[in-house]
What does this fold into?
Amino acid sequence: MAASFFEEINSEGPTGVAFKNVNLKKKVISYFANTGNATIADLSKELNLSVPKVTSLINDLIQDSLVQDHGKIESTGGRKPNVYGLAPNSGFFMGIDVKQHYINIGLTDFQKNLISSFDRCPYELKNTQESLEELCKIINNFIADLPIPKEKILGIGINLSGRINYSKGYNYNLFHFHEDPLSKIIEQEVGIKVLLENDSHAMAYGEFCSGAVSTERNILFLNLDYGIGMGIIINGQLYYGKSGYSGEVGHIPIFQNEILCRCGKKGCLETEASGWALVERFKEKLQGGASTLATLNHMAPEDIHLEDIINAANNDDVLAIELIAQVGEKIGRGIALLINLFNPELVILGGLLATTEDYILLPIKSAIKKYSVSLVNNDTQLKISQLGDKAGVIGACLLVRHRLLDLEHS
It folds into this structure.
């Protein structure tokens, strides 16, 4: 019995005629997903394939419930042709955005619609085998609760912080316990093809495809979270650099201080201008006797997270607002440097700190004017992420869609 498209795409790589057929089926699906329904004659012309070959591919995809016959259409004469397109619920892509204290999970269809999501599932990201096993358990539970067959999920994209080589599936900062790529380790546990991505890269791609971007092609996305990451899009394409580690803006040595960064060096932007830095400064103020709404629930200073400070600021807490402004000014200094280097059309601010909006946006704008060349920054727009907490999930789904099916951005 011939393998289905779902089995073929999740196999270790077909060869020969099977490999060619899988790629041709991808092209058919790509056309339907990006252009819409078509006749066999249309597909034959667009894909430069014979009518019998297209007919064979369509029949296989109908057999796999990926494509359906939408009936006959009007024609100028002669026999009316049938029009074909993607079947409803034909295939799905799963995106998982792993944060420090929670996980967001979502499922999209071929047309990029988010059809199911689970936001802020409690999770503690630690570099331990137990934390990795808990991640796999959460993924499997989400899949088990879906109202669709597991085999219809064509791939899973997982966003993590750190240095990730997406083409090889390694994360060299987290869960690097085995010789096998982390993507393969998770794949064995969940039974679906897995692709890893740096969280900031995925968030940038999500915003570019479905968020704050309109016609811009050269964009910087700043992920202002516990750390500071960046996704770079040049001429409409994600820029990875030689080894895939581009965007380590948080480790630009911008300050003259003796604060040891998490990367092991001193003076990095993250040491004074990140969520980690904000939490540490907030705790110092509390230990010095400062008052804040963040401790109204009798929370001990050592138990305070970045989310607690942001909630306090959004409830007009003076201490939280003042410290966020200080961090914002320093982030703005870093962004000014980036604007001078890249001269981008658009800078998008995302991540937890960006949810404070004007509290961090105004000091950032002020610092950009102060530290960047006005002739350069005049051409750069600054926006808050439109997708917010869903940017990473949507970006992960779309990157899996793009890479597994070779679909062009649309």
